[in-house]
Amino acid sequence: MIPRYQKILFAVLIVASLVLGILLWQLRQRAHQKLLAGEDSAPTRAPEVAPAEQATLLVANDADNTLRTQIQSLPLPADPGGRARAVLSKLLDLYSAADSPHPAPGGTNAVTQVFLMPALGDPATGDKNPQHSDALLAVVNLSGSFVASHPSGLEPETLTVLSICGTLHANLPRVTQVRFLVDGVERKTLAGHADLTRTYLATEAMPTAEGARQ
Q: Are residues 26 and 120 in the same domain?
């Protein structure tokens, strides 16, 4: 003979199970309806791509050790840091081409990041107050694979560094100084010669009238 209290407890458990089952079924239905509603409201158009703009690249030429201005149409982000990385990626992509006037493997992955911050002052004179309060220092983070494969020599290394500095200043005039990192840390040289521990003045990398031809 089953005691009366056990019968009552058993009945309560059955009712509770039924109630929980109904609640779970309702929650599942609501979640399914929300999922369907989300799919219906999802945008069907492709994500927007940055509009193409004219970018000025200072391309190194090993034949006469000059920097030559080259205009390219590129999709450039509105964010200054993104724009800086975009123009440098295109520049170094040109260097990785088979017919490049300044061969340097690496391409678009050679620059991993570009950080922009207030300029430090004139590194040549030690002046701690930049001439222009809105002047920027660009910190260019190069990939270790690009540096490891870069041709060694004072002239090719210097041309690479100066072309990066000049390209940044040509497209972002507020960038007056440039420093370099490799995989996020400071490195003494690019490939044994060009100094990467110093701060470069971007304006010094701008080509002369003779070297600025297309």
A: no
Shared domain for 8 and 70, answered yes or no, is no
The amino acid at residue 121 is G
Tokens representing residue 30 in the block: 């609501």
At 189 the three-state DSSP class reads: strand
Packed helices 154-171 and 80-95: angle between N→C axes, nearest 10 degrees: 140
108 and 191 both lie in a single domain: yes
What total number of domains does the chain contain?
2
Say whether both 38 and 119 belong to one domain: no
Are residues 94 and 121 located together in one domain of the fold?
yes
Q: What is the pLDDT of residues 144-182, one digit of tens each?
A: 999 999 999 999 999 999 999 999 999 999 999 999 999
Q: What does the pLDDT read at residue 29?
A: 72
Instruction: Please provide residue 55's backbone torsions phi and psi, each rounded to the nearest 5 degrees.
Output: -120, 145
User: Residues 113-146: pLDDT tens digits?
Assistant: 999 999 986 544 444 554 557 899 999 999 999 9
**Domain span including residue 102:** 52-205
Phi/psi region, residue 30 (left: phi>0; alpha: psi -120 to 50; beta: rest), is alpha
Q: Which residue has the higher pLDDT, 139 or 9?
A: 139
Q: Which two tokens stand for residue 20?
A: 């929980």
Q: Is residue 59 part of a domain?
A: yes
